[in-house]
Amino acid sequence: MKCETIEQALIESAGMTPEIVAHLEGCAACRSFQATLMALERSLDPDGVPDPGPRYWSDLPGRVRIRLAQERVTRTLWERILDLPRFVSLVPVALLLLLLLLRPGIVRWQGEDTVAVQDAPSEAEIVTFLEEEEGAKRLFSVVDLEEVDPARLSTGMLLAINEEIQGGDDSLLLSTSTGLFDDTSLSGTLDELEGEELEALAAMLERS
Hints:
Shape: elongated
Order of helices and strands: HHHHHHHHHHHH
Distance between the termini: 114 Å
Strand content: under 5%
Largest sheet: none
Radius of gyration: 45 Å
Number of helices: 12
Structural class: mainly alpha
């Protein structure tokens, strides 16, 4: 008999026939295969597993309850979502795709706002306007143009002059500018305003 036939017979537990016994006596490879197969069968025998003892079985229910509690606590939101039907778990993907589709419009809208801000008159242009326009000198006669520092131009004054450039009402320009330079404690630019200074500027604009 061939070794392949003997190995197949040993796997199928066909029994130790005289032909198999004779082959095993003369073939060391098949005897080694038989020993390995018998060791594997002993490891799979449930009766061969040692008893862990009574304490193991008495502690088992408590350990199972603790493990279940940990499982409930450690489950993340995404794990709970994945437990839902498949179409529900696709909702985040759909929202992401929608955001990607809307992104060009959002970028274009932000770009338009940036252009609008860049078109606003600069501080240097405002000072030049004050120095050249007679009407502006009349409206802002309380301010010495030679002493005006562009870095300390008030936000309210910027808004008022912008209104004048665009053909706004002279009275509105005058009322907006009145009192903005009276409080020297205000910071020079809007970016520097904070807390009480910002509230003071808002109150002055409300009164004007």
